[in-house]
Amino acid sequence: QVQLVESGGGLVQAGGSLRLSCAASGGTFSSYFMGWFRQAPGKERLFVASITWTGGTTNYVNSVKGRFTISRDNSKNTVYLQMNSLRPEDTAVYYCAAGRGRPAFWNADEYDYWGQGTQVTVSS
């Protein structure tokens, strides 16, 4: 059993930055494929970024490429999402997710464990 807790969200102006953290407990962190998803009010939960077990491969939705960076520190059982040049359309609840093995990284249904989310609000 794995528990995930997100932190680092908040209110920022357009063009600003935030760094989200996801702390994991239980299980073996390095064995999990990690992802970030986001869900805006009234919208479905959508893929943002993912990272493989040792951080060798990352994937991003096109809208955040060049602005967001996902990383992980297995010694701290933590995955991060550095968000720069934030835009109002980035406003959402951001969720950390963990998958056993290698899921289809863009598909939320492929992940096994989820955090409770952290709110990111970007004002114009």
Tell me about this structure.
The chain has strands spanning 3-7, 10-13, 18-25, 32-39, 46-51, 58-60, 68-73, 78-83, 92-100, 113-114, 118-123. By secondary structure, it is an all-beta fold. The strands form two sheets. Strands 2, 4, 5, 6, 9, 10 and 11 form a seven-stranded mixed β-sheet that branches. A four-stranded antiparallel β-sheet has the order 1-3-8-7, with no helix packed on it. The protein starts with a strand and ends with a strand.
Salient structural properties:
single chain; four-stranded antiparallel β-sheet; seven-stranded mixed β-sheet; about 120 residues; mainly beta
Rg result: 13 Å
Query: Unreliable stretches, pLDDT < 50, 5 or more residues?
Result: none
Mean pLDDT over the full residue set: 95
Shape: globular
Give the strand tally. 11
Give helix and strand order, one letter per element, not per position.
EEEEEEEEEEE
Distance between the termini: 40 Å
Work out the helicity level. Answer: under 10%
Count of DSSP-assigned helices:
0
Biggest sheet character: 7 strands, mixed
In percent, how much strand structure appears in the residues?
A: over 45%
Structural class of the helices, strands and pairings?
A: mainly beta
How do the helices and strands line up, and which of them pair or pack?
Elements: E1 3-7, E2 10-13, E3 18-25, E4 32-39, E5 46-51, E6 58-60, E7 68-73, E8 78-83, E9 92-100, E10 113-114, E11 118-123
Parallel strand pairs: 2-11
Antiparallel strand pairs: 1-3, 3-8, 4-5, 4-9, 5-6, 7-8, 9-10, 9-11
